[in-house]
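Annex B.
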Amino acid sequence: YGKNTIKFLRLHREGKKHFVKEVQVCTHLRLTSAQEYLEGNNSLVIPTDTIKNIVLVLAKKNGIPSLEQFAIDICNHFMTTFCQVMYVKTYVQEVPWQRLHENGVPHIHSFICVPDGIRFCEAEQCRNGPLIVFAGIKDLKLMKATQSGFEGFYKNEHTTLPERHDRILCGELFCKWSYGECKDFDFDCTWNKIRECILEAFSGPPDCGEYSPSYQKTVNCIQMLVLSKVSQVQVIEVVLNNTFYNVLDMKNLGLTNEKEVLIPVEAPYGSCACTLGRKKFFEA
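Uricase: predicted structure tokens.
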């Protein structure tokens, strides 16, 4: 049981310069006994209102140095404070505020909400067990206008999809990864590096791009690049929900349409998902 959707804005000041972190937190606990379920005995139950207040107090006292560290702080607090807590899991999601720039100059106290993907993390721990930290990005919408196709696929009497060697590749990406030992590295720097890997693998070199023969291959390229460049990542899950665009037939308007006007296909849409990890992780 626990408390969902604890929303707050943490404001930090350094002189005239302001820093903001707006987050949404979900914290769930498992107790050593199920007596509240089986017997109606609530003596060990930490009220969800108390859970909410603890999260807010930790934000006030510790700040939010990174989403992952804040989730770790919450887990550590419940494990060290309440002997009846057997398991704790915390999810933290950030509102994508970015500092506003005017003529290239960063503003000291103004921000803009930029929907270029939502950062999140999870931390979970069992008593006498290791602390496990996940991080990720969701609702990241990506598009490449060319350098994508889909050919040579299996066909039977139900196949109507034509082969394409030049199409738009567009999708909404969900990516979640797990870390190894969470010590002595910068969570913010690592998250930004992984995000750069995702964008690089999706798009290819800026001057020419890179051909994608399928959404599945693009998903694999993202995972392989992250695992090759970020040693802290042990397992990475990627889900790419596809958005398709059909070329509009404009013959009845007396026009030819050479892939200049396209209509998005809202539903149904395709989805590709894969979880990839280092061999030592799966052997363990």
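The longest strand covers residues 17-31. Residues 187-203 form the longest helix (17 residues). Further annotation is deferred to the next reporting cycle.
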